[in-house]
Amino acid sequence: MAEAEDMQTFTSIMDALVRISTSMKNMEKELLCPVCQEMYKQPLVLPCTHNVCQACAREVLGQQGYVGHGGDPSSEPTSPASTPSTRSPRLSRRTLPKPERLDRLLKSGFGTYPGRKRGALHPQVIMFPCPACQGDVELGERGLAGLFRNLTLERVVERYRQSVSVGGSILCQLCKPPPLEATKGCTECRATFCNECFKLFHPWGTQKAQHEPTLPPSPSAPRA
């Protein structure tokens, strides 16, 4: 009888751990920008309700030839907390998505995108190819300047970063000594990587390039 009760308790605990692990993985996916596959920085809310980093959105529009209200860095999105005294440092410091990833995004079946392009005499509505829902999203003539920053999501990302840093940093397992802090994880490789090592061990055009990056695990989480 005692053994049966112990086994039932053990099974219940394992089921709970599986549910928690699944929830954490789902949460990690929600904190990654669909363009750069890194944690959101200054996320913008698209009209389709999906999010994208401000710098990534500008890069995507710039690749399509939008200028002015679309891809010009001087055009700031609307935000209740985005005032001259509270804006973050210039986004040029932000690691932009790799060119090949942008090429895949722009060639993945989206339609045409009429709008304020170089040489256009009559500016039209600016369209944005949402990488999450694969739809053409209408931004309006103001482009990114008409979008709101997702301040709630920013706070969630910041709190997640703080929780990960508690108890020490997770280091890249592939770096030469001294290792850098890990910025990505890979469940298929069962390893943590800095940005450079992730690119090195997941070369473009190989099967490993299809691996989906995750956020690095919490220092208190058990290692695989």
From TrEMBL:
Residues 73-89 have a biased composition (Low complexity). Keywords: Coiled coil, Cytoplasm, Cytoskeleton, Metal-binding, Repeat, Zinc, Zinc-finger. It is found in: Cytoplasm, Cytoskeleton. The keyword Metal-binding applies. Residues 67-98 are annotated as: Disordered. One of its GO terms (cellular component) is axon cytoplasm. GO terms for molecular function: zinc ion binding. The keyword Metal-binding applies. Gene3D superfamilies: 4.10.830.40, Zinc/RING finger domain, C3HC4 (zinc finger). Pfam families: zf-RING_UBOX. One of its GO terms (biological process) is neuron migration. SMART domains: RING (SM00184). Residues 33-133 form the RING-type domain. This is RING-type domain-containing protein.
